[in-house]
Amino acid sequence: MTRPHVAPGAVFALCVVLYLAAAAALTWVATAQPWLGLRLGVVGQSVVVTDIAQGSAMDRDMIGKRLLSVSADNQPAIPVTPLDLIEEPDGIGDQETLRRFFDRQDRLHDALRSGAVTLTFDQADGPESVSVRVQESRPVSDLPMKFWTQIFVAFVGMFIGTWVVCLRPHEQAGWWFLLSGIGLALASSSAAIYSSRELALSLKAYSVACRVNPGGSLLFGIGMVTLFLSYPRRIVPKPVLWLPTLLIGACILLVLGPGWPDKLNNAPDMIAIIMVALLLVIAAQVAANRRDPAARAMLGWLGVSVAVGAGGFVLTSILPTLIGLAPVIEQSTAFLFFLIIYAGIALAVTRYRLFDLANWSYGILFYGLGVALLLGLDAALIYGLSLGRAPAFGIALAAICMVYLPLRDKVWVLLKRNREIPAEELYRRVTQIAHARDPEDKQRLLRKFWSDIFNPLRIKDQPASTTITELQDDGRILTLASIGNLPALSLELAGQGSRLFSSRDLARADAILSLLDASLSQHETYLQAVSAERLRINRDMHDNIGVLLLSALHTGPRERKDLLIRQTLADLRELISNPDQTDWDLRDLLADLRAEIITHFEAAHITVTWQADEITKGRISHRLAHALRAFLREGTSNILRHSGATEAKVQIDLKSDGVQLTLSDNGSGFDSSVASLGNGFRNLRNRFTQLQGAFSYSTGAKGTTLTAFLPLFSTQKEAAAE
């Protein structure tokens, strides 16, 4: 039973919908928290109100005051310290401090959940207590940029990973890449929840988020390390490929196992080790592919982007934490380094056929991103600027159409830029190759042509038996079939070794070869026509013009000589102009030839007898007329020049399907072995053979006889001869 085919685009679209739903769920979790409407910051060793959010019950007079504690009704006050505002808990150095942090976060959250709290501020004249009504949920518009940044990073990772897998589901490397995207999404989205809190989260929420975060980071490491162990070249035995999975899986179990949160501050150590391992594996791939230009070019994008992305995250966020320093930038911002990785992946896919994706797949990526941006911008306008849904969607749609789509097209052209030759120039160069006479010039032009189109690293000759144009060695080589008198070639690595050949390149090469084949055939037909025309002119010059000139030389009277010369010139003009569409009246043609032949013989003092059946047929074609005229004129010319005859006889017998021609004389004959080599008889035989007729001769001491048959009225045979 054949499994039904599911379009990759449909699967991808379904996954994008699921990811958007997950993003909506995360947004709901972030907003389902009690909310005061305070913007809190750290000044020295104090927590200070930096701003009051719109819609908050707090008075703006609170801005600039130091917050000392929070207490619910009839509950002890909970002190608020700078540690409570720390973005990433795994940056806390010791276990005891970490426990106190989570305990105070849980107590603060419970207090806020009570619905009403008392905030104590430090004043010059002593502490000031303010009772505040806590809102049950946080407005979406109040979520900080760090939340949306991390959600965006999570979405991009899974977005590109899913895109690759949907298009190449049987490519193992693609699944490892998707695993890395899922890990990044888990790490980034969980961090988005606790890093963007207003003041506190419950211990339960922290327990989930802070377990998922390092676990996701380790999943990212599993995917990336295993990916580079197996792609673009497997550098370890297959069983070893599962070792990173087992090791990092053990680390994940360790993080998720009993003893949390004691083990939480070990997560940076494990993440740092994974990142170092990743950089080492990339270096090993570079060393293993040092003689492979395509792999080197691919790693130049892929490896560098991963090294910069992962390395940047470690150097700015993880490493300072390990050595007891404050992060260079907030972790939420450091997550943006991972976008470098996926941008590098997208470029590698586009430029170097990473995972061997088809060209049409890029449209899915670009349009999918456009939909995501449309929805994101729509949401931002609704919740950020409090616009209505209809105006917000209209503005978002206009922005996408006016900004994103033109920019997308420009980026696409930039990424897929190829050494395209304009159609006019392409046709001109193809024609130039086809018309080149010298074989060396033809090959030189052909190689230069393919070099300008694909800019390959090398061009090699192939056996003449190569008749198929195809991709070989996973796109490293494009083999070009031999056509006509053009040699077969192989092109190695397009773009001077920077990329592999794609199916698009193969289709383009096939189209160009078809154009070359047509041009070669057209040129060959032209050469054959030229050769045939030259042969025709030569033959007619010999058979017709020569006879007339010879007769003019042997004619005594000046008037007769002038007449023959004028006739010769008229025939010459007709020969050159070749009025092929002109038919001849058979009776008129024979009458003219009778007068012409008799005149020639009488001028040479040869008695001629003309016997012809009565002609009742109508018109004949120019080819048949030329053949009949050539027979009589060539025969007459031979009698006048060579025979020494005193008598000649012309006999024309009309048959049911043609005409029988006989020309004889009483001369001395000739050596048939020499005559067979003459152009005259050879031309006659070729003429009559082409017209499905017959020509023969006999010679001896009593003279020579020429015999011919023309199928004058067999139009089918004549059409076949054409």
How would you characterize this protein structure?
The chain is of the alpha+beta class. It has five domains: 8-28 and 146-357, Up-down Bundle (Rhopdopsin 7-helix transmembrane proteins), CATH 1.20.1070; 36-142, Roll (Pdz3 Domain), CATH 2.30.42; 359-417, no CATH class; 423-519, no CATH class; 579-721, Histidine kinase-like ATPase, C-terminal domain (Heat Shock Protein 90), CATH 3.30.565.10. It is 59% helix and 12% strand. The chain contains 22 helices and 17 strands. It has helices spanning 8-31, 95-113, 145-167, 172-195, 203-230, 243-256, 267-288, 293-322, 331-334, 337-352, 361-384, 389-415, 423-435, 439-454, 494-497, 503-554, 558-577, 586-603, 622-643, 672-675, 679-690, 715-721, and strands spanning 38-43, 46-52, 66-72, 78-79, 116-122, 128-133, 458-461, 470-472, 477-480, 489-492, 584-585, 607-612, 619-620, 647-654, 659-665, 694-700, 703-710. The strands form four sheets. Strands 1, 2, 3, 4, 5 and 6 form a six-stranded antiparallel sheet that branches. The longest helix has 52 residues, at 503-554. It starts with 7 loop residues before the first helix and ends with a helix. Mean pLDDT is 75; it is low at 1-5, 352-362 and 714-722.
